[in-house]
Amino acid sequence: MSTAIQNQYQAAKVLYSGFGIDVDRVLETLSRVKISIHCWQGDDVHGFLRNEALSGGISVTGNYPGAARTPQELRCDLEKALSMIPGKHKVNLHAIYADTKEQVDLDQLEPRHFETWVEWAKKQGLGLDFNPTCFSHPKFQDGFSISHPNPEIQEFWIKHCKVSRKIAEYFGRELQQTCVTNFWFPDGFKDVPIDRMAPRKRMKEALDKVFAEKIDPQFNVDAVESKLFGIGSESYVVGSHEFCMSYALKNNKVICLDAGHFHPTETISNKLSALALFDTQILLHVSRPVRWDSDHVVIMDDELQEIAKELVRNQLLDKVHIGLDYFDASINRIAAWIIGSRNMIKALLRAMLEPTDMLRKAELGADFTTRLAILEELKSYPFGAVWDYYCQQNQVPVREAWLTEVKQYEAEVLQKR
Ligand code: RNT
Ligand code: ZN
């Protein structure tokens, strides 16, 4: 271990201990937090089931070379990324990432089509999360999947969601870690609808069918993800926030909040303390909205730090599943994983290095001066020294050293694809 990093860490510890913060303990707590890393950053949400570009609901821009073309390549890229992210985490799969030579449609998927992923996850000590893929498919028609008015189309998507839960249950049982399955449907209208309620009624009834089978929550829990608008659904989205939140609360499902799925100035950090009071689990899709787009690489911005602070201050780390959700095809995809994941962990660390009790007391006593002064001073406390130490302790590259490794991997592996 480098002595410079150790010395800086010791100095930082002294400073934080002035606030009564035990930094060693903070790092222990941090090492137990798992981030669910989304596999789809590795190949621009392409998947391996169908050889077609993304269509309907979401889109990816950029053509940086080296996207993974096979499950093997994707796993190899993930391993590279994971080797630069401190801690033990989970990988989040979509149904289209099935690893099989069979020609199998979404409604016919079975656990065996994901066996190689499970073997790999076991070897790597990773958990797995899952998502049905309700887009980019010929049965995604007129902008609708599971709430399509045609019962045949609707049935196809119900079936797909049902088999997805069985795959998730298999993940959970095999890996002895709960799999979180997230249900997101792009369903909606480009233009102003006549009937806003009927599609919601169809979605509600369809979801009831999807979730009819009881699955041991030790193996799988289901989340529903809302969205305000999407590409092609600018005027109306069936699975709005009110719809998904109400459905989840009534049916004991996990509420998925995607940071990019709300009005441009609406933040998910402000929602956590409210939802957490109503005995619900939450899944986060940590993402970064930029104007009308929702999926930029997660950076250390104010909202990321506010999300982390809310989780830490309110002791929500057991109740909230932290997942990442972004896709940028204009930069090195492995770097994108590393930047976003490291930022998420770094934001949590920074939040843990806060004298919350003291600040809470100031707030209760209406001493808003102290609250503001300390919060601002804390911003220049040496959390970076603690982060560097944590990286070194976890045997991952310190600071930007990871970039050299990624560049080398790019030259040796990605550019040959
Ligand atoms: C899309 C949703 C959804 C997807 C993934 C790929 O707006 O955020 O979570 O990004 O399922
Ligand atoms: Zn999302």
UniProtKB/TrEMBL annotation:
Family annotation (Pfam families): RhaA (PF06134)
Reaction equations catalysed: L-rhamnopyranose = L-rhamnulose
A GO biological process held by the record: L-lyxose metabolic process
Family: Belongs to the rhamnose isomerase family.
Chief location: cytoplasm
Highest rank taxon of the organism: Bacteria
Keywords: Cytoplasm, Isomerase, Manganese, Metal-binding, Rhamnose metabolism
Cofactor(s) needed for function: Mn(2+)
GO cellular component, one term: cytoplasm
Pathway assigned in UniProt: Carbohydrate degradation; L-rhamnose degradation; glycerone phosphate from L-rhamnose: step 1/3
Protein residues bound to Mn(2+): H261, D293, D295
Subcellular location: Cytoplasm
UniProt remark on cofactor binding: Binds 1 Mn(2+) ion per subunit.
Protein known as: L-rhamnose isomerase
Job of this protein: Catalyzes the interconversion of L-rhamnose and L-rhamnulose.
Enzyme nomenclature, EC number: 5.3.1.14
GO terms, molecular function: L-rhamnose isomerase activity; manganese ion binding
